[in-house]
Amino acid sequence: MTTVLFLLLGGLAGILSGLFGIGGGVVIVAALVGWFKMPIHQATGTSLAALLLPVGVLGAREYWKAGHVDVRTALLIALGLTFGAWAGARYAQGVAPATLQRGFALFLAVMAVRMWFKAG
């Protein structure tokens, strides 16, 4: 049963990634912590490991075919993500689980409020 739930979580994260460009932290980490009761460090590491594979390649291809991908910008962001993920993961290892989980929740809340008020 857990296998099916993890596959469904991946599918949901994939759909939301294709729709909104989100998935890893916003969907997967939140679900692993909230629904599967996984410790925050383990949830974050598991999400990063899942994203190591070229999970967005088919979705990105669809956007590219429609002329909606700025390749130069995407490559520069990917380079930043590579080193940023390393630095963030390294730092997170020294942060208490409760502090990390509260920081994540605060980040999501701030982003949600910001998006709500900036909407057209």
Task: Write a concise keyword list for the protein shown above.
mainly alpha; 6 helices; 0% strand
Describe this structure in words.
With 120 residues, this protein is mainly α. It is built from six helices and no strands. It has helices spanning 2-20, 24-34, 40-51, 57-65, 71-92, 97-118. Helix 1 (2-20) packs antiparallel against helix 2 and helix 2 packs across helix 3 (40-51). The longest helix has 22 residues, at 71-92. The radius of gyration is 15 Å and the shape is globular. The chain starts with a helix and ends with a helix.
SSE topology sketch:
Layout: H1 2-20, H2 24-34, H3 40-51, H4 57-65, H5 71-92, H6 97-118
Helix pairs in contact: 1-2, 2-3
Shape: globular
- The total strand number stands at 0
- End-to-end Cα distance, whole Å, is 41 Å
Are there runs of 5+ residues with pLDDT below 50, and where? none
- The SS-based structural class is mainly alpha
Major β-sheet annotation: none
Radius of gyration equals 15 Å
**What is the average per-residue confidence, as pLDDT, rounded to a whole number?**
90
Helix percentage range: over 70%
Proportion of residues in extended strands: under 5%
